Input
Amino acid sequence: MKPLKPVIVVHGGAGNWHPERVNPGIEGVKKAAKTGFDVMLNGGSALDAVVEAVAVLEDEGVFNAGYGSSLTIEKTVEMEASVMEGKTLRAGAAGLLKDIRNPVRLARIVMEHTDHVFVVGEGAEKLARLFNLERRNPITELRLKYYEQQKRALLEGKFELPKLAELVKNHPEIFDLETVGAVALDKEGNVAAATSTGGFPLKLPGRIGDSPLIGCGTYADNRSGACSATGVGEIAIRLCLAKTVCNYMEGGKTAQEAVEEAIRLVNERMTGIYNSMGLIAVNTRGEIGAAHNSKHLCWAYLTPEMPEPEGALTAKILR
Ligand code: ASP
Output
């Protein structure tokens, strides 16, 4: 079968979407899918496409990435992002970013202009200065409002992290996980993935999630496909989830079978903790996949035979 090319899938995060942000969320993922797809139609690579798609989402203000990132327990922002290219297995990531407008662009700089894969904190800030990356205060009124609500609820739960599972069970609406990500297959048959986040709301300063970790939140390999994850970062880290999805695809599963199998694995192995995950994937045949065990997964995709991107708030739900 001839691969369907180019193809892009983007997500705007798993979790519970507040009704007030459903429309902007779906419009945002559709806009990002269209932007990334057009990049590839105009000769850009899958890498260009995922970076531009994620940059759109980082600028929207409705997602937990870039402008509008979640706040740490200390009311600060620490953003992180990663990119990976399937042809060469080159990858780049940046973390603990305070005010870089588009963390995904810094991740790409780490990949293309350093000998490293992951740079955080002061070093990452310095690199951003060297490359004149734009700055923007990522804190929005909406996030400040959520922060106050979340902190109040956390304090009522006695403020201990082991209480988090219980807390979220009683107040699922307070933990919106709206990390963003994109996976694409370009006309040359190369895949790429990118993921960007403000991290888990009320995280401890210094906490790194799955989104910038290659193999956990992001993975791409031309031998299989590409995957971007969203949800509780600690779960994706413990299961190396994005790489696991790619392994399933390399083993012969379709992209949809692979993300479903990975969510089943999450459900089987990650018990007794707050568990909310979402996955998107594309394989080298241009087949796409999206699955989650969270209530929602805001996502969109675009393929050559579609006039416009399709966006939705749920995909295949496996509980
Ligand atoms: N995976 C992200 C993290 O744990 C959160 C999210 O997907 O919204 O940092």
About this structure: The mean pLDDT is 93. The CA atoms of residues 20 and 123 lie 37 Å apart. DSSP finds nine helices and 13 strands in the chain.
